[in-house]
Write a sequence for this structure.
């Protein structure tokens, strides 16, 4: 894996240097938390089935971070690298294709993780966020959601002819998804009609799974979400591999 | 005996749709030479060079380079060659030193990149992001990347396109310097002057075929192309006497200007000698030599830049 770690490190630096990506991944979720936390606080309420607003919404915001890094950052960055000829230039070196792939996936995962850690830290410090009893389960759900959405990001990058069109399509997919899936506006607030449509958005199972695992539910009650995300990961990876272009 | 060629290409074919980008290309590249491919846009230069680089899979034909098959032995091959790709960009926010550090890490035996940075005059720019570099600086950075693995064989595809004349000349010196280090260079260009100045041998491509391949001098000489001596004189000129000189083909007169045509390299000397011995006053004397541009025009009936 010669070159792989260096590539990973540089790609991570490049992600952090992208002002929009850095803002929406690392800062914006915390701003949402502070804004709505200031309004609703974190006292348990029947409206969130006995949870406080912050306890219920931190895992939902984590879903929003995942959508931001994959649908926005990853797909646009990949399409841009291809359009500039960066991928083609990598291909003219002994760098293995798997290292090129890993050099994109690991940094975006680390960036997503960073966003989540900052969000959790802010929640704990300011609102006494209740940490999950089974942290590993939450981490597992987080990784599964990331894999599934990164695959979607790669598909988007591959099928879009240019970075510009990837950006447009990413926006069109991203905004309705984060508003309707319950990842930014609590699903409890959404009208029933919207919620039944939102069931078919790929981000909705992420919100459901992460909220449930955070709250302490077991995996068994959410096999549907898990299967859906695993399916998106498998199908997305196959389609991404088939449609991938170096140039 | 000729030494083993560094690159050996026979009957290379590559088609895109109905376009035959490479239509039976044959050539050898010898050790330590600068081998140029010239031709108009769409002649098949880039297709050919990228097939040899292993970036494109040819539809047919045989390619050996550095004793390897660039496709089958791609990994080992890429370890030993340097490439500069046509119209390539890097991420806008990556810094110059990071690019070198990154690409050096891809190779088994990279050179120290700090001296490379100095040699290419990029030291002051080491912390500059790629997007802030000028066209010439970007190209120099790409040359640095092509040298970072100390390759035996280097490909430059349209190295000087988009550069101003001064930057282009500086680029030529760099390329010659690289050759003097003992490396073999293959380059494509659509500047005939560049090919003429830099290359030991030039292949002229048109419609996916090599239509001529030789040293620039031989290509020009092979045309039987004429050299011209042009000068101005107020005096009545002895046109017949000039015409009688050895090596002079014909003499043309336009007002006060006289154009003497001949194929001989000694043409200028003969004409000037004659003029001074017969005490003819002349001014604005210049010579016009046939160039590769003329070779291309003669071979294809078209000008290069259309």
């Amino acid at each position: 894996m010669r070159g792989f770690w260096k590539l990973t490190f540089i790609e991570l630096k490049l992600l952090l240097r992208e002002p929009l990506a850095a803002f929406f991944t690392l800062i914006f979720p915390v701003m949402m938390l502070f804004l709505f936390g200031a309004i609703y606080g974190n006292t348990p309420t029947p409206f969130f089935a006995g949870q406080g607003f912050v306890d219920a919404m931190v895992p939902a915001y984590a879903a929003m971070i995942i959508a931001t890094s994959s649908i926005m950052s990853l797909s646009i960055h990949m399409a841009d690298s291809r359009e500039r000829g960066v991928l083609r230039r990598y291909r003219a070196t002994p760098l293995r294709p798997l290292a090129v792939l890993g050099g994109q996936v690991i940094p975006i995962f680390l960036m997503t993780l960073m966003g989540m850690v900052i969000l959790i830290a802010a929640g704990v410090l300011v609102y006494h966020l209740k940490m999950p009893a089974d942290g590993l389960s939450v981490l597992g759900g987080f990784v599964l959601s990331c894999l599934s959405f990164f695959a979607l990001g790669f598909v988007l990058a591959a099928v879009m002819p240019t970075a510009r069109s990837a950006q447009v399509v990413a926006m069109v997919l991203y905004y309705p998804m984060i508003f309707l899936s319950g990842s930014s506006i609590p699903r409890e607030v959404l009208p029933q009609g919207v919620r039944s449509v939102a069931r078919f958005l790929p981000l909705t199972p992420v919100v459901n799974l992460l909220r449930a695992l955070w709250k302490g539910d077991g995996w068994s009650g959410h096999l549907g979400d898990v299967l859906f995300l695993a399916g998106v990961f498998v199908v997305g990876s196959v389609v991404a591999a088939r449609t991938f272009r170096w140039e | 005996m000729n030494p083993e060629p560094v690159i050996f290409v026979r009957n290379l074919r590559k088609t895109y749709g109905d376009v035959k980008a490479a239509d039976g290309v044959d050539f050898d590249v010898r050790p330590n030479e600068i081998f140029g491919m010239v031709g108009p846009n769409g002649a098949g230069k880039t297709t050919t060079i990228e097939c040899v680089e292993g970036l494109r899979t040819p539809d047919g034909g045989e390619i050996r380079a550095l004793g390897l098959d660039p496709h089958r032995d791609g990994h080992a091959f890429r370890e030993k060659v340097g490439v500069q790709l046509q119209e390539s960009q890097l991420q806008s926010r990556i810094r110059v030193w990071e690019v070198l550090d990154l690409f050096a890490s891809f190779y088994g035996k990279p050179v120290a990149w700090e001296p490379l940075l100095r040699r290419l005059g990029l030291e002051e720019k080491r912390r500059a992001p790629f997007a802030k570099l000028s066209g010439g600086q970007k190209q120099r950075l790409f040359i640095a990347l092509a040298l970072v693995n100390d390759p035996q064989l280097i490909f430059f595809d349209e190295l000087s396109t988009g550069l101003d004349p001064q930057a282009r000349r500086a680029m030529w010196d760099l390329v010659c310097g690289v050759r003097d280090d003992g490396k073999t260079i293959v380059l494509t260009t659509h500047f005939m002057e560049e090919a003429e100045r830099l290359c030991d041998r030039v292949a002229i491509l048109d419609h996916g075929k090599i239509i001529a391949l030789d040293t620039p001098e031989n290509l020009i000489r092979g045309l039987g192309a004429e050299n011209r001596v042009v000068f101005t004189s107020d005096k009545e000129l002895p046109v017949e006497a000039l015409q009688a000189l050895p090596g002079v083909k014909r003499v043309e007169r336009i007002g006060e200007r006289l154009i003497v045509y001949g194929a001989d390299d000694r043409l200028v000397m003969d004409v000037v000698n004659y003029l001074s011995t017969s005490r003819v006053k002349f001014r604005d004397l210049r010579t016009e030599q046939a160039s590769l541009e003329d070779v291309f025009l003669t071979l294809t009936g078209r000008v290069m830049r259309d």
The first strand of chain B starts at residue 7 and ends at 16. Residues 7-221 of chain B form a domain with the Rossmann fold fold (CATH 3.40.50.300).
